[in-house]
Amino acid sequence: MQAAQFIRKYSVSNAKSGPVRKDSIDSTVKWVEYASDLVKMTELVRVAKFEEKWALAEAMQVAERKKNWHYKQNNFNLQRASMLLSAFMRGK
Where are the domains of the chain? Predict the structure, then answer.
């Protein structure tokens, strides 16, 4: 993904409308998604234009907050998450 795609993905205006039941969310998979996005955004910050760095930093804060929220959920499995994240990073 490019920096603009991450900024759009984590912008406030992209918030979904309507509530979602916590039980229907697979927190482990979402945690892996946010963790991998944070790794990619960290790499992009190094080469991004100055104007994009601020927006990427804000997107990183949102992703970090969401990642932390999913970590605290009952259906989060740390062993599975670490396995999925390591497999993703090897395939990168």
Answer: 26-91
